[in-house]
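re: that complex we talked abt at group meeting.

here r the seqs, copy pasted straight from the sheet so there may be weird spacing, ignore it
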Amino acid sequence: DTEVTQTPKHLVMGMTNKKSLKCEQHMGHRAMYWYKQKAKKPPELMFVYSYEKLSINESVPSRFSPECPNSSLLNLHLHALQPEDSALYLCASSLRTGTDTQYFGPGTRLTVL
Amino acid sequence: GENVEQHPSTLSVQEGDSAVIKCTYSDSASNYFPWYKQELGKGPQLIIDIRSNVGEKKDQRIAVTLNKTAKHFSLHITETQPEDSAVYFCAASIDSSASKIIFGSGTRLSIRP
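got the structure back, here u go
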């Protein structure tokens, strides 16, 4: 099973809302990632968790707050977002960080009004 | 840091013909080169990868070649089919615990019936 699941598939939120994106994998992977993808662009790395610890934060604004409650789950908490934050948010996982294959979920399509 | 350039940005080929997508990278320390296919409304899916100790790898209709001296690698798809229509991303990575995948800008491949 090489599946990464993400919920919700679509999310519409206002600039004052608080919402969370969820990601789950049961492949025993110890590295998990959040990416942001704008239309017609490649994924941009936001955060990397390794063994449930944040190892890379690509200078992401504090209105995005990641959380890794356990080795199978990854959350992205959203608060006071801007319309320019509208994008596809992708979760990925790999056995470890480095050059182990990253498996991507289907993404959450976020629209900020 | 690493920079990956990808060409062409769009490619249209007749069904049954071959398609070639080319990428160059800047960091000679990069040693892992995955290729991802992204269909509309889905997350990127790994289709093939190659490591720097190998010059060519083939999986059915898909092959990847790597020239470390010239710092370029290519994806070859033979006998193209309608389901090959998608956006393809090349990427490069260095094998270290702090490594990130650096994506190319993507190629939109269309297969003409």
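couple things i noticed - DSSP finds no helices and eleven strands in chain A. The two ends of chain A are 36 Å apart (CA to CA).
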